[in-house]
Fold each of these.
Amino acid sequence: MAKHVIFLNLIMFLMVSWASAQPSRVIFLGESHTSESDHAGQLEVLKSLEGAPLILAAEMFTSRSERALMELTETPLSEELWKQEWGHPYELYAPIWEWAVGRVQIAPLRPDPSFTKRVKEGGPAVAVAEIDTLLLGPEPYRQSLSEIFAAHLPPDQEMSDEMLNSYFLIQCFWDEYMAWRISRLADQYPEHRIAVLVGYGHLHPEFGIPARLKRRRPDLRYVNIAFSEERRELCDLLWTLRER
């Protein structure tokens, strides 16, 4: 009996938590890119939002694909577009795109690769000229990224300050750009909510996209949703998949 009470209390807690998140304009749906359960959870949340105006902003696409995405009203994503924009298997995301086409507008979230190249070569000022501001920091973020970057280097290669500075600049730029992009979408579609498909690495509460969006647009209420217990500390809510 006690187990049933605990289970019912958990269900009630999740329902109340989700209800409290409903007024949010921006809903971050985190993911590990190769996790089938994360993508299944994202789709469940999207279906729960169906019926109200919604924009689906996706890290999988860069701004160069915006026109192609705008034209997706009846036909599915082409294999050519997908291979151009994202390196992970289409099958992992297929149920989301099949649901989205004809229901919601898909919007790209990442910058055009040519813009990233210009920022890498010209520094923060190149980004600021277009997206108004770029916070290079905070320092704990730099330390965290240095450990990640070092772990991906070949065993015989040492990390130089120049390499770390370039890596840190681009990571901050991507997070800042995506926050700027969400802000622009909120202005472009004032009656819509914005669901954001993005990797958990961009959702750190202190230096990820949400923190940068809050600094830019304190008027935009948002909520972060995780789909696995190990990512719970990054997000406001943990979404548990329905039994299949």
Note: The mean pLDDT is 88.
Amino acid sequence: MIDLHCHILPALDDGAVDLADSVAMGRQAFDDGIEVICATPHFRDDDDLEIGALPARVAEVDEKFTSLGIDVRVVGGGEVAEAALTGLEAEELDRLALGSGRWVLLEPAPGPLTDSLRDAVDGLRRRGYRSLIAHPERHTASDTAERLADLVDRGALVQMTAGLISDGPASATLLELAGQGLVHVLGSDAHSSRSGPPLALSAGLERLWEIAALREHVEWIARDAPTAVLHGHPVEPPYAVTLGR
């Protein structure tokens, strides 16, 4: 399994507190069967994240895992806020893209999804990037499914939080969206081993297996789609969006 959304880099954003916390998160991932973690620190327009330092920070954690025998790779990326795209140079965007590829984990603006997210997806595509929409469960409204479907039509994919699909008040909404073909990858969105959701995907994938329309595609969601994203390949979902219209 591959986790495309995780705040595992230490002392950088609201994620891992220190390297020991990162190591504990890595052990959680290994125990869950995760093989690759994409480190995605927040990049927002009010942050002072040093984009140029990210490769070294990723390498520090990856090398620590290797030295401790934790068989989990850590690769680079970022969670880029919709409002922070303006002004990002091509080199900066390359370093924030997931893995070595051309996909950007795009964080919608607070509140319901709006036309500005659509414009951000279109703007990234004009620059040669595709969008992976982060945690839409934080932005639900009466038109969420329709807006996500429009973004998928524009070439985006949708990432949902594994722990919230498997448990909690958002699970019913997420399972409904998933049943409409509006989930393509899961992410842990884990921030720490000491609080919040664990660095795990398997329980969320098990819930997706309960959806008849997705049952034969769970392996694609867990491995094939995120692998293609990390390598910058085009992704064509093997199931269609069905909104019942």
Note: The domain at 2-230 is CATH 3.20.20.140 (TIM Barrel).
Amino acid sequence: MSYGYSKTVNLTYEEALTRVEEELKERGFGILTEIDVKATLKKKLNEDMNNYKILGACNPPFAHKAIEMEREIGLLLPCNVLVYTNDDNETVVSAIDANAMLSVVGDDDKIQEVATEVSNRLREAVDAVEQKATVSA
């Protein structure tokens, strides 16, 4: 996957959701939006699927910095983080690669610096969820 970073973790879906939020918070992110895709598809289409949530994560200082540099960058925010159950009943945590996401802005070195820092923090959060899951297993 070239536009994100993903780990299969040894946690239940609910445990992973809790840990993801904790790890993001430790890195300066809050959750602005939460989309329960499973519930939405059941309600709107009467379709069943595995657990699947999209968390819209935001680090306010980085968001502010990026918006100050490029007003329209808000179209690409917040940074999405997924927690879902795959077909093997494993829990997966994924985060957007902000460098890939913001590459559409062009060759703006300052924006790419922000994107790199955001990507690093999101990757650290995903890794921490996996590491803490391994320790507690």
Note: Residues 109-136 form the longest helix (28 residues).
